[in-house]
Amino acid sequence: MRVSLIIPTCNGAPGIAELLRRMRAQSVPPQEILVVDSASEDGTAQLAASVPGVRVRSIERREFDHGGTRDRALREARGNVVLFMTQDALPVDDRLVERLLAPFADPRVAAVGARQIARPDARPFERAVRAHSYPAESRIWTASDIPALGVRAFLISNVCAAYRREAVLAVGGYDRPVMTNEDMLMAEKLLHAGHALAYCGQAAVWHSHCLSLRSQFQRNLLVGRTMKRYEARFEHVKELDEGTSLFRDVARHLLREGQAGECCCFMADCAARLLGNRAGRLIEGMRRAKR
């Protein structure tokens, strides 16, 4: 399989060179690497262009769209497997690409998501959140599993995910424009077109956040708006079920570890997520009602 790696960037200078170095050193390196840079002001485009074999396409920041930008890059790519990564993810080892390709041996599989492991310096509750959301066990699922999986059926993350290019094009490419969750929308399209999706717990990247409560609220406001806008396509699955499971498992873990203070911080983080999501859904519902 020929692999094209696509990385959208914006002011990613602190980590882009290391990410590109690690990806070029993979046991199965991408045959093509395309960086789509949104008018970075810190030299990201220049750093990426200095890495041998890397092609950079620069766009104006106002042109960036989570779905549209990825769609254009995928159509430009020459690989039959397109691997999307974000600038703040790093492969855990040199077998990331090799392991992501393995599930494609099953012709039903159209996309494979990677495991995300919190960086060593991440705060305890963020490490527990990643462990809950991205377990070590691999799996493959189809549309028939949606009732049992709920919203998790659509959780393929473009932090690191590989797609069969022809399958993506066959379902019309990425939705555009979209504010966020372009990967979930693509997962929905692929499942309902009869494809299977896969999660490979052995293919891992370092990736985690340290968001303020304000940033967490704003992030989930966009998620809430997107989920409300496309709720019919997601079969009206309830995010709250997954949120409750996350809260329960992480809180229990933190309390078992004797980290009551960290548990309180996690509760505040969850409150920001929930309030942001509810606000986003309310805003989107009101906008829909006005049309």
Task: Describe it.
This protein is α/β, with parallel strands linked by helices. It contains eleven helices and nine strands. Strands 1, 2, 3, 4, 5, 6, 7, 8 and 9 form a nine-stranded mixed sheet that branches. α5 crosses α10 and α9 packs across α11. The longest helix is centred in the last third of the chain and has 31 residues. It is globular, with a radius of gyration of 19 Å. The mean pLDDT is 96.
Q: How is this structure best summarized?
A:
45% of the residues lie in helices and 19% in strands.
How is the topology of this model organized?
Blueprint lengths: L2 E7 L3 H12 L7 E7 L5 H6 L4 E6 L6 H11 L4 E5 L4 E2 L4 H6 L7 E9 L6 H10 L5 E3 L4 H4 L10 E5 H6 L11 H11 L3 E11 L6 H17 L9 H18 L3 H31 L1
Parallel strand pairs: 1-2, 1-4, 2-3, 6-9
Antiparallel strand pairs: 4-8, 5-9, 6-8, 7-9
Estimate percent helicity: 40-55%
Kindly state the number of beta strands. Answer: 9
| Outline | globular
Mean of all residue-level pLDDT scores: 96
**SS element count, helices:** 11
SSE order:
EHEHEHEEHEHEHEHHEHHH
Unreliable segments (pLDDT under 50, ≥5 consecutive)?
none
Structural class, please? alpha/beta
Strand content: 15-25%
